[in-house]
Design a protein that fits this description.
43% helix; globular; 211 residues; Rossmann fold; 5-stranded parallel beta sheet; alpha/beta
Amino acid sequence: MRIICYGDSNTFGYIPGRGGRYNRHTRWPGVLQDLLGSSYEVIEEGLCGRTTVFEDRTEPGRCGLDRITEAVTEHGPADLLILMLGSNDCKTQFQASPEQITKGMEQIAEKARACAGRDIPILLIAPAAMTEQVMKSGFGSEFDQQSVKVSQELADTFEKLAARCGCHFLDGSKAAKVSETDGLHLDEKGHQKLAEAVKSKVIDLTETQKM
């Protein structure tokens, strides 16, 4: 089973507080690979700063909608596409509501299925909500109180989208917490917890397909 993990810095494995990248066996897609074993192939497609459909004025080329076709076709055929985006959409420069961010995620899911040429199974993950610590971190100039509020509301709108579009859903905030260091990125424990939750979803999906 081939799984594509398409996301932002929390899929990339950005290390909170000091930057850089966690190694393959620490970031959640790599942990997922280790948990699932050799009968699965977990492919990482994480990019720091990636949004759903917004073009960042300070970091161009991070629009997730623009890259999804290449991600699906280059690594296809995939048996499951995991989408975890939304945190960067909460930046103050976009002034986006939870509904607007969710609409962006819907566009990515639709485009992924169109380029795959089939109804590829999709797991939508609402990213672990950020905390007010983000405003005290090195990312403080990009996020504010409203950003935190919007991030906390994404799980509800993403879950409704999943039901409407026939996708699977996982609330990242119930699986893992962002680090106390920067209030935005997962730490080692967070990556482990998220991978364990995703593994359960993948196993359930695999069992369902066998029925």
